[in-house]
Amino acid sequence: AGMACCGSRNVRFQNDLEVQQLKAISLESPSTASKNHSKLPHDPRKCRLGSRVCPERPCRSIRDRVLSRAFSEELESLMHSGGHLFFDPRGRVIHLWNKIFLTACLLSLFVDPLFLYLTGTQQNMCIEFKHSLALMLSVIRSLLDVFYAAHICLRFRTAFIAPSSRVFGRGELVIQPYKIAMRYLSRTFWFDLITALPLPQFVIWVVVPMLKESATANRKDILRFSIIFQYLPRLFQIFPLTRQIVMATGAMTENAWASAAYNLILYMLASHVLGALWYLFSVQRQEACWREACNLEGPMCRTEFFDCNTVSSNRTIWYELSNITRLCTPDNSFYQFGIYAEAFNYKLTTSAFTQKYFYCFWWGLKNLSCLGQNLATSLYIGEISFAIVIGVLGLVLFALLIGNMQYFCLCSRISKRP
C-alpha cells in the first residue's frame, strides 16, 4: 500500500506489519484509536521539508530549524528569508565573483612587476630609489589586495557539496559554518592568505628604511625576493579560478574571440614580467661592474659611494678622479655585460619610467616570440639560465596561444552551423 503525506511527491509503501496495525486500529473505538495512534513512533519521512501541517506532528518550517544540508533551491529560499547567508558554489553570485576576482588577479599580476622598476641609476654613478613611484604602486596594490581579502571572507560563506551525496542527483550543500570553515582551513586557506598579504608594501615602507643607507644591493635583493615569493602563488591562483569558470559555463566567455584574447593577455603578461626582470638584472650588472672597478682603485673608493643618499666631499673628489665611467661600458672589454649591454647602450637605467617600461616590455615580447635566439649571453651562469628560461617559456606559451586560438575558432565555426 502506498501513502503520501502533506502534499509530498514521495510515496512510501507500507509493509505487512504496518497494514495489520492499521486494521487493528480501525476496528477499535475512535477514542481508543486516537490514543493508540498517538503512541505510534513518529516517522519523519512522512513530512516534506517545507510542510507545516502533518497528521502526526506539526512540521517546522525551514526558518524554524537549524539545517546542516540543503539543495540549491532551498538555499536560495533561506537567503531570501534572511535566516542564513551562504552561497551556492554553482550559483550566479559565485560565478560573477569569480569573474571579478579573476580580473583583479590579472591586474595584480600586471602591477607587481612594476615594483622592479623602483631602482635606477643617475649620471654621477649612483643607484637611487624612486619613492614617488613606490607610493603610487603601493596605493594601487593595496586596493587590489582588498579583493584578495574579500575572496577569503567569501570562501568562509560558500557552501560545498557533501561527498556522500554525489552518488545520486545534484548533491546536497553543506551549510554548517563550522564544517565550511574547517574544510577551507584544511585546504587552500593558507595559500590564499599568502597571496593576500601586502608583502611589497611591507618591504618598501618597513624593511628597506631599517637597512643601512649603503645597503643598495640588499634593497634590490630583498625587494626582488618578496615580489617573486608572492608573484608565483598569485600566478598559480588564476589557473584553478579559470577552471571553475569554465566548468560552470562550459567556456571562458560567451565569445570565442574574447577567450582567445584572454590567452593573448597571458602571453603579453609573460613578456611584461621578463622585461621587468631584465631591467632589474641590468641595474645589478651595472652595480657589479662598479664594484669590481672600485676594488681596483684601492681605499680611495668605497662601496657606499654608489648610494645616491651618500653625499660627502670625499665622494665628490672620488667621482672627479675615478675611471669607472670609462671602464664600465659595453665597448670596453673590462667587464662582460652579455644580454644586458643593450640597456647600457640606450642608457635605459637613467631614463624616465615610461621609457623604461615600454622598451623593457618590447624587449620581453621580442625575445619571447623569437624564443631567445638573438640573445648573446656572457659566461655568467645566472645570465645563461635566464636566457634558457626565456627560450623554453616562449616555446610553451606560443604553442598554447596558437593551439587555443585554433580551438576557439573551430568551436565558433561549429556553433554557427545549422
What does this structure look like?
Helices cover 61% and strands 4% of the residues. With 418 residues, the chain is mainly α. It has 3 domains: 2-61, no CATH class; 63-249, no CATH class; 283-418, no CATH class. The longest helix is centred in the middle third of the chain and has 42 residues, at 256-297. The chain is globular, with a radius of gyration of 33 Å. The chain starts with a strand and ends with a helix. The model is unreliable at 1-66 (pLDDT under 50). The chain crosses the membrane at residues 100-120, 132-154, 189-210, 260-281, 384-410.
Strand order of the largest sheet: 3-7-6
Series of secondary-structure elements, N-terminal to C-terminal: EEHHEHHEEHEEHHHHHHHHHH
Number of helices: 15
Main beta sheet strand tally, sense and closure: 3 strands, antiparallel
Shape: globular
What proportion strand?
under 5%
Question: Based on DSSP secondary structure assignment, what is the total number of beta strands?
Answer: 7
User: Which radius of gyration do the C-alpha atoms yield?
Assistant: 33 Å
Structural class comes to mainly alpha
Average pLDDT works out at 76
Low-confidence stretches: 1-66
How many independent structural domains?
Answer: 3
Q: What proportion of the residues is helical, as a percent range?
A: 55-70%
Termini Cα gap: 51 Å
Membrane topology: Multi-pass membrane protein
Pfam families: Ion_trans
Protein name: Ion transport domain-containing protein
Transmembrane segments: 100-120, 132-154, 189-210, 260-281, 384-410
